[in-house]
């Protein structure tokens, strides 16, 4: 937090997450903020606490799901659908893919945490 202060002149703003990670990789004194899917072997995640003096927790899936890692959040997909009408077939199949085993394996392959199976089942039941 800036605590009512200004950003330092030495802050290097980057155009995107990949650039942040690249910048941190090449500057041993750098720190940056990016999504977990951009993590590489050149950087490490930082354990965080949500209060001063609080217990620091690792940026791992279980802590994200439990809500104990302060910067964790779900990535949401929104679809444009008229109220009271079913999803069109193409959109329905895309949503099924997202929450399928194959879709969640792709999420993990890209370095993100998968949706818990209970959430995937719940969302799949909503589009039947």
Describe the structure.
It is built from 5 helices and no strands. It has 128 residues and is mainly alpha-helical. Among the domains are: 50 residues, no CATH class; 38 residues, no CATH class. The longest helix has 11 residues. It is elongated, with a radius of gyration of 19 Å.
For the CA atoms, what is the radius of gyration? 19 Å
- Count of DSSP E strands? 0
In N-to-C order, the SSE pattern is HHHHH
Shape: elongated
Quick synopsis:
This protein is an all-alpha fold.
Q: Which tags fit this structure?
A:
128 residues; mainly alpha; 5 helices; elongated
Q: Which secondary structure elements does this structure contain, and how are they paired or packed?
A:
Blueprint: H1 17-26, H2 61-66, H3 89-99, H4 101-109, H5 117-126
């Amino acid at each position: 937090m800036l605590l009512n202060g200004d950003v330092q002149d030495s802050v290097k703003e980057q155009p995107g997450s990949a650039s942040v990670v690249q910048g941190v990789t090449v500057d041993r004194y750098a720190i940056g903020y990016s999504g977990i899917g951009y993590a590489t072997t050149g950087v490490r995640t930082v354990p965080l606490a949500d209060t001063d003096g609080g217990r620091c927790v690792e940026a791992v899936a279980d802590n994200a799901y439990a809500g104990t890692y302060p910067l964790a959040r779900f990535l949401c997909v929104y679809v444009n659908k008229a109220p009271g009408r079913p999803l069109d077939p193409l959109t329905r199949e895309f949503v099924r893919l997202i929450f399928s085993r194959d879709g969640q394996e792709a999420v993990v392959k890209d370095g993100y945490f998968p949706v818990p199976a209970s959430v995937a089942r719940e969302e799949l039941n909503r589009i039947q």
